[in-house]
Amino acid sequence: MILAAGRGERMRPLTDTIPKPLLPLAGRPLIEYHLRALAAAGVREVVINHAHLGHRLEDALGDGSRWGLAIAWSPEGEALETGGGIFRALPLLGEAPFIVVNGDVWSDFDFSGLPAEPAGLAHLVLVDNPAHHPAGDFVLADGRVREGDGPRLTFSGIGVYRPALFAGCAPGRFPLGPLLRTAMARDEVSGEHYRGRWVDVGTPERLAALEAELLR
């Protein structure tokens, strides 16, 4: 699943007329980098949620066949945040563990290395803390992700989740973080530290810097 329902407030005015995942980056839409990487890893079915200007996403990407993918769309009307968006899409995602990636990040991460069966309810990819988020999010120790003392890393927005992570949730708008933290407290979240290229494309300045790097 690619999360693509965010409004992109920090990207305004660029996102006033273009949904953030369609912002051009070195000659192709930002979301296309994910589609190509997922297809290269052997993924064949992708769910994409949307809200703001969602029709433009559907018009631009279609059924995904040009990348060897089958795209199923999960329209939300009003964005449901990360947790609510995934929960709404569960009927499209099936009963097996599934990959989720934020639509507003860029990375050269190889999705084929993710575990098909995470040891617990979730498996998170963590990265070095970027300059705009120096405090990080979680601690990674012995392959397990937790809160608490110790060097912290930043959650990349890439993970593998079991549908059971969302047991007891109700339809509506809610974040993913509290569900992950509850699972961490039960030692049900594994993780890995990815040291390759990763960028949170959250502002026009970061988008421009990444584009200049890729064009070089």
UniProtKB/TrEMBL annotation:
The keyword Electron transport does not apply. It holds the Pfam family NTP_transferase. Keywords: Nucleotidyltransferase, Transferase. InterPro entries: GlmU-like, MurU, NTP_transferase_dom, Nucleotide-diphossugar_trans. SUPFAM superfamilies: Nucleotide-diphospho-sugar transferases. One of its GO terms (molecular function) is nucleotidyltransferase activity. The keyword Nucleotide-binding does not apply. Gene3D superfamilies: Spore Coat Polysaccharide Biosynthesis Protein SpsA, Chain A (3.90.550.10). Residues 1-113 form the Nucleotidyl transferase domain. This is MurNAc alpha-1-phosphate uridylyltransferase.
